[in-house]
Amino acid sequence: AMFSIVCLGSSVWGHHMFTVGLDVKTAVFFSSVTMIIGVPTGIKVFTWLYMLLNSSVNVSDPVLWWVVSFI
């Protein structure tokens, strides 16, 4: 998931170029890639949550509090 986020993220930069008058096909490409990058990101987040729910985490662990505050 991390590798696909890096690969897709390197081609997402174009959606910041909306003020320069991009071609319609180019705008559709960058919009599509921006939406597609949500899939591996969601996989990564749900994998983290699954790992935390199936592990023995104490309430006093700082990692637990960091994750809860992150979400």
Automatic annotation (TrEMBL):
The record ties this protein, via PROSITE patterns, to: COX1
Main site of residence? mitochondrion
Q: Does the keyword Isomerase apply?
A: no
Query: Which pathway does the record list?
Result: Energy metabolism; oxidative phosphorylation
- Give me the reactions it catalyses: 4 Fe(II)-[cytochrome c] + O2 + 8 H(+)(in) = 4 Fe(III)-[cytochrome c] + 2 H2O + 4 H(+)(out)
EC number(s) reported in the record: 7.1.1.9
Q: Which GO terms describe its biological process?
A: electron transport coupled proton transport; mitochondrial electron transport, cytochrome c to oxygen
Q: Which GO terms describe its molecular function?
A: cytochrome-c oxidase activity; heme binding; metal ion binding
Q: Name one GO cellular component term.
A: mitochondrial inner membrane
Give the EC class as a word: translocase
Q: Which UniProt keywords apply?
A: Copper, Electron transport, Heme, Iron, Membrane, Metal-binding, Mitochondrion, Mitochondrion inner membrane, Respiratory chain, Transmembrane, Transmembrane helix, Transport
Requisite cofactors:
heme
User: Where do the TM regions start and end?
Assistant: 27-50
**UniProt-annotated location(s):** Mitochondrion inner membrane
In the bilayer, the protein is annotated as:
Multi-pass membrane protein
Any Pfam family from its record, for instance, is COX1
The keyword Metal-binding is annotated on this UniProt entry: yes
Q: Which domain of life is it from?
A: Eukaryota
Q: Which family does it belong to?
A: Belongs to the heme-copper respiratory oxidase family.
Function of this protein?
Component of the cytochrome c oxidase, the last enzyme in the mitochondrial electron transport chain which drives oxidative phosphorylation. The respiratory chain contains 3 multisubunit complexes succinate dehydrogenase (complex II, CII), ubiquinol-cytochrome c oxidoreductase (cytochrome b-c1 complex, complex III, CIII) and cytochrome c oxidase (complex IV, CIV), that cooperate to transfer electrons derived from NADH and succinate to molecular oxygen, creating an electrochemical gradient over the inner membrane that drives transmembrane transport and the ATP synthase.
- The protein in question is named Cytochrome c oxidase subunit 1
